[in-house]
Specification:
Blueprint: H1 3-9, E1 19-30, E2 33-41, E3 50-51, E4 54-56, H2 66-76, H3 82-85, E5 89-96, E6 107-115, E7 128-135, H4 159-176, H5 190-201, H6 207-216, E8 221-227, E9 240-244
Parallel strand pairs: 1-6
Antiparallel strand pairs: 1-2, 1-4, 2-3, 2-7, 5-6, 8-9
Length: 264
């Protein structure tokens, strides 16, 4: 039998139906605090509960791949513009397929991690009752259950676990990649970069040590030749402006304060 003959006779109804969704852990920093985007569900299941933005992958042949579905859901359910999404870093986080995670049917979710500069207030899409940037520290997440003990907002499905995984991925990536610069504009100061690390890691860092280590990593940042228009709050000298360099990995890495490396 040729492959063409096999495909002509193939009957997918011989297998149990499985649906595929995408969910997005979207992170940004607002007023110096790490926030995650949550939507409040307007329809069953879990009506009225908070969840990560996401939805079913469109099944029409050739319409979209997984990353396109994640970008679409992020835009549709929040009202973020395509232009705003163009500045967002988007990468695949993991796949979640525990039986029973969705009461409707067997659903496999491919989760994505997104983060970028301060994004505008969201506007809930047609299938969401509300959308909001929520401070991560207010959730007090655990990865063990979809209704994480101690959370101030109940998350639907297994989204507490997905969110906890996304936060750990983001915190780890800041150690060995330059993606902290994705939270900033095109030009930034070293103190602004340090504020990103402090917000994502949830730890204060020693200003002098951080400055020294950042500038010692080849390709992490490069000077623009410009300075801030004014000095600091106490009338000090104007700060130098930097932009992201061409490095893809940080060597040496900037390890979290809980490690042996001392950024404090």
């Amino acid at each position: 039998m040729t492959e063409e003959e096999f495909l002509a006779e193939y009957d997918p109804r011989g297998y149990d139906p499985i649906a595929v969704t995408v969910d997005v852990v979207a992170l940004t920093i607002r007023d110096g605090v790490l926030h995650v985007l949550l939507i409040r569900r307007a329809a069953p299941p879990f009506t009225g509960q908070w969840a990560l933005p996401g939805g079913f992958v469109r099944a029409v042949e050739g319409e979209e791949d997984l990353q396109e579905a994640a970008a679409r859901e992020l835009a549709e359910e929040t009202g973020l513009t395509v232009r705003a999404l163009g500045r967002v870093h988007l990468e695949q986080l993991g796949t979640y397929g525990r039986p029973g995670r969705d009461p409707r049917m067997r659903v496999i979710s491919v989760a994505y991690l997104a983060f970028g500069p301060e994004m505008p207030d969201p506007h809930a899409g047609s299938d969401a009752a509300d959308a909001s940037w929520v401070p991560v520290e207010s959730l007090r997440l655990t990865a063990a259950a979809s209704q994480a003990p101690g959370t101030t907002r109940k998350l639907a499905f297994d989204h507490s676990r997905i969110l906890a995984d996304g936060l750990e991925r983001a915190r780890a990536k800041l150690e060995y990649t330059p993606l902290a610069t994705a939270f900033l504009g095109e030009a930034f100061t070293i103190p602004e970069l340090r504020a990103v690390y402090e917000s994502v890691w949830g730890e204060p860092l020693h200003a002098g040590n951080f400055h020294r280590k950042v500038l010692s990593v080849p390709g992490f940042v490069e000077g623009t030749g410009d300075t801030t228009p004014t000095g600091g709050r106490r009338g000090g000298p104007r700060a130098r402006l930097y932009r992201a360099g061409d490095a893809r990995l940080l060597h040496p890495a900037l390890l979290r304060p809980s490690s042996e490396d001392d950024l404090r």
